[in-house]
Fold this protein.
Amino acid sequence: MADARATEPRTQTLGRERLDYVRPPVTTGRPVSAGRLELALLAVTSTALVAGGISFVLGARGAADLSWAIGTVAGIGPAVVWVFAALRRKHAGVDLIAVLALVGTLAIGEYLAGALISVMLASGRTLESAAQRRASHDLRALLERAPRSARRREGGSVLTVPLEEIAPGDLLVVGPGEVVPVDGTAAGAATVDESALTGEPEHVERAAGEDVRSGVLNAGPAFEFRATATAENSTYAAIVRLAREAGAESAPVVRVADRAAAWFLPLSLAAAALGWVIGGTSERAVAVLVVATPCPLLLAAPVAIVSGLARAARRGVVVRDGRALEALGRARTLVLDKTGTLTAGRPRVLSVSTGPGRSPAEVLQLAASLDQVSPHVLAEALVREAHVRGLPLTVPLDAAEDPGKGITGLVDGHRLQVGRVELPGELPAWARTARNRAALDGAAVVWLTVDGELSGAVLLRDPVRYDAPRTLRRLCGAGLTRLVMLTGDHEGAAREVAAVVGLDGVASRQSPADKVAAVRAERTRAVTVMVGDGVNDAPALAAADVGVAMGARGSTASSEAADVVLTADRLDRLADAIEAAVRARAIAVQSAVGGIALSLAAMAVAAAGYLPPAAGALLQEAIDIAVILNALRALGAGWASRRALEPGTEELLNRFSAEHEDLRDALDVLRDAADQVASGDPTQALTAVRRAHRFLSERILPHEEAEEHQLYPALSGPLGSAEATATMSRTHAEIGRLARRVATHLEQADEGGAIHPDQVDDLLASLYGLHTVLRLHFAQEEENYFSLVP
């Protein structure tokens, strides 16, 4: 598959002259325009049937037979064409049964039955075509909005040019309501609608210098951006190439239906012959052929599979073809990369440690000011965190970066160094504590020295995605039985992530070749899905039964190698896709088996002489309609779908999520207080405990109280019942109990002017316990509740 894509001319994807890629996927091999011919045939045959009926009622039996005969003859020609078209595609020509039935009705004078068969054929084909158009609507919409030109600023003018002429570095203009043509960086503030890629309707603000992906819609005033890629290498082009290849004919379940149809044809002919022999009349044979036409097998599977593709596309998941969707439905093993897949892919500040006389805000402000001019990924994290906290940054002077060590420069007249430090002698106690915490938490340490003095440390870690544990549980519920992580990271970090999300296996220090070998080994045991986002994951994605790329921020190479692209930067979209695939496959099999069972039963009744041709034609029409409508159920989410959040509930979740972000770093005040109590200095310990008590009474307890009485009642609907939050309510009670113990210890200490030795053990247990319980409680709420927000 990859080789075929590599040899395809790029100009066919986004070229101005070639527009054929915007055709929606069609599963039956008929051109889209065939829908008009089917409508015309339906009009002719229906008119003939109605005209014959009117003539019959008026007593003109000859005119009635003539009208019905014309309707019968009108159906023979298209049915013959469909037979040969199917045979050319190496599909079972079960429409041959329809041709034989039509000819048979003419031969025995059953003109009404023939007219009914013609109407049945025309309406069945029309319904099938309409069903496929509806099912592929989301994919077609994705393709049809692909831009074909761009407006490039050249001096004082703006020229419209073909996309293939755009090169990295060009300054482009996007007007209101226009689609961004290529990937780039905003030259100024921009408001974009990313719903076509992510499935989320919210508008996103992009500041100057931030990335803007091709395919997003300008939801605000016109803005300019600088192209960073050509059209063929941009995000939307890769998605268009995937959607262009989407179809259902290659799906194994469809091929199974075709094979079943191959034996259904001789079975139908044998049943017709048997009915003729038993009844001694050709009428029974014709009745058997009538109820055997057309075979529901050829309608059910393609419509269900393409409906599943559309359902996945609606959730921001582009599946390359029906084969990939069907394989997703059979998958039992999931292999995941770590960074950018199970984790956010961007390090974030975990905590800030300070030397004597420094505050966390001051340390972060100084380090971020100098790191503004550094391209290092950790520097970006520091600057981003400083912006989030609203810290004003100073432009550094005389900045110089030494790769592998860090950056030095002047900030506010002080010589700073940010990065690694090599100081003679032993580290001070606070620095040793920071270093030990980093080792325990699997975090990286960025040190800050001010005028040669070690002044602070910032701990950073790539956090596990909020939605990762919940998503993996959903995947297990959908049928996956083995979850494995492959990562190039060191073993400690890999084991910690694996423990948090609950994996069956983990391998660290994996090279691209190692990942390919591991995926191939998993494939020998079960159908395997591989999820990744980087260039190094592309070979493993290609080696898997189904490769899934995190396309929102992943590399173009991984997207090109993948069978499935998650256009939203959310892992739970994979669970949506697999649930859609399992549902589509089950419905396809159910529809095919149910349709053929009903047809076989009708054939038996007809062969026994209890079903005349005209009634059989009506019955078969009902079977075909039922099969198509059942297959279209794959467009829906099913009874197990999650209930949508009310706007008020979503607003509460966003509010408390933001409060978590604000409170998480402040939790260290509890551990710092406990450290001071353990140090044995009564004066400093009492001051630290008072600070911790203020934090608990002014920030933590009001936050927990608001969650208990506002958020949790609002979640009872989406989660199914109030019992879903019962364990979290019990944690609230425990947090309140420990906070009251700290308050009581503080009252006792204030009476004597110091913390008494007999208070130390219980106070340490309360403070350390609060720190641990709150961190766990925050993680549980983020995983179980906050991840519900789109």
In short: The longest strand covers residues 453-461. The two ends are 33 Å apart (CA to CA).
